[in-house]
Amino acid sequence: MAPSLHPDVIAPPGILVDRVELADRITIIAQPVAASARCPGCDQPSSRVHSRYTRTLADLPIAGRQAVIEVVVRRFRCAASGCPIRIFAERLGPDLAGPYARRTARLESIVHHLGLALGGRPAERLSRRLVVPARRDTMLRSVRRHAARPVEAPRVIGIDDWAFRRGRRYGTIIVDLERRRTLALLPDRESGTVEAWLSAHPEITIVARDRGGGYGEATTRALPDAVQTADRWHLMENASAAFLDAVRRSMPAIRKAVGTATVDPERLTRAERLRYEGYLRREATGEAILALSRKGVPIKTIARTTGHSRKLVRNVVRGLTGDVFRSRQSSLEAHLPWLEGEWKAGCRNGAELWRQLRARGFTGSLRVVGEWATRQRRSEQVPDGAPGQVPSARRLARLLTIARDGLTKADAVVVATVETEVTGLVEARSLVSAFQAMVRKRRHADLDGWIERAAASLLGSFAAGLVKDKAAVAAALTEPWSNGQTEGQITRLKLVKRQMFGRANLDLLEARLVGAA
Length: 517
Hints:
Elements: H1 7-10, E1 15-22, E2 26-32, E3 37-38, E4 45-46, E5 49-62, E6 65-77, E7 87-89, H2 105-118, H3 121-129, H4 136-145, E8 156-165, E9 169-176, E10 181-186, H5 191-199, E11 206-209, H6 213-222, E12 227-230, H7 232-249, H8 251-258, H9 270-294, H10 299-306, H11 310-318, H12 336-345, H13 350-359, H14 366-380, H15 393-401, H16 409-421, H17 423-441, H18 447-455, H19 460-468, H20 470-478, H21 484-499, H22 506-516
Parallel strand pairs: 2-6, 8-11, 11-12
Antiparallel strand pairs: 1-2, 3-4, 5-6, 6-7, 8-9, 9-10
Helix pairs in contact: 2-3, 2-4, 5-6, 7-15, 7-17, 8-16, 10-11, 13-14, 17-18, 18-19
C-alpha cells in the first residue's frame, strides 16, 4: 500500500501544520515548533508568551495551484531586567523565512534565480506558467538584494572596456582569469576610476589588457610591481591593421605601377561608376586639405575652415584616404566559393545563378548576383599582361596575403605587378607574417630583432608602438594569460544588457553577472 502524503512533508522545516484548506489556492495553517525564542537585544531565551499574530507567507505551488502558509507567530516578553526590549516576536529561521519576508526562503530562492537568469519581464512571463506569484520588479529587487561580490582575492585579472552605447558611453569590466568570473563593472573607462579599483586590490600580480594606453598607465600607478601582459589577439589584429595602413599609404604608387591612375568608366558597372564619382569628390576635398596643410595650417584650423571632421583631415594629411573603390561587406561572401565553381563549370547567366542561389537559401537580390557576374565577365576580358582595375586598399591587402592559387586572372596580374613595382609592401607583408608567427609560437627571443627590422619599413609606426609597450608585449609571448576570457565575459554582458532592453543600471548588470557565476 502506497504511503499517504502528510502535510508536514509539504511544509518547510521549522513549523507544525495544524490544517490545510483547499480553495482557489492551498492554505496551510501552521505554528512554529520551538517552545521558546531568543530576544534579539540580549540573546536570552524566553518562554513567556505575550500575544500571537498571523504571518502570511507565499510558498511554492502545489499541484498547479498557488500555496500560502499562515503561521501563527508568538510575541514573547523578555525576562532580562537590563534589556531595553520588553516584547519581541519570534524569528522563523532562515530556512523558513527572514524577518519581514512575505515569501518562504525556498520561494525566494526560485524568484532570485529566475531574475538572475532571465531579468525582469521574461522572468515574470515564465513565473506565470510556473504559478510563482512574483512581478518583474520583485524579480529585480531580489537580484539586487542577494547580490554578493566574490570573496576570493584575485591574483590574475583581465581588464577591458565595453559599451553602454557604442561610440558615446563606455564602462570597464574586470575579470578574474583564474576563476573565470566577473569581478566588477566600473561606470567608465577613465584611468582614475580604474586606478582607484586597482589600488584597493594590492594582491593582484598579473594584469591582462589591450594595448590602449589608459589601462596600462592606471596599472603602472596603482600596481607598479604587477606584470602587465598585452592581449595576443589584439597584437595580431594590430599587425593586420598596420599592414592595411601601409597599403593605403602606398595606393598612389600602386596605381602608378598598375597603370590605372586614370580609370576607364566604360569598364565600370553602374554601381562602380557611382563610387568612382564619389572618389573624384573625395580627391577634390583631399587636395584642398593638403593645400592648407602644406602652408603649415594646423589640423584643428583646417577642420574649422573646411567644415570637415578632424578625423578626416588627419587621415588626409597622413595619406590614409586614397581608395578609388571602398570595400563593403557583401551578402555574397558566404556563397562566393560555390559561385566561382559554377562560373568555372560554364554557367555564365546571372539570372540562372541567382535562381540556384535562392534555392540554396540566398536572400539577396538579382542585382547583386548580376553585378558579380558582370565583374567576372569583364575581368576575363583583360588581355594577357595587361593589368585590370585597381582594387580597394582593403581588398588589395587581402589579395596580397592569401594564396596565389585562389586569385582570378585579373587579381593575379595586379598582385604580381604590385609585388614587382612596390617592393616595400612585399617587405611589410613578410614582416607581418613573421610577427604573427612569432606570436603564435611564443618566440620571445625574436622580438628585438623583428622590431629593429620593422622600424625601417612601412610598419615603422607599428614598431614604435611596440617599443613603447615592449614589457607588456614581451609578457604576452611568455605568460599563459590573455584577454580571451575577458572578451567572453563581455559577450555575456552584452547578452544580459540586450535581454533587459539596454535599460539596466550598472548595479543590476553587475549583480546578474557576478551572481550567475
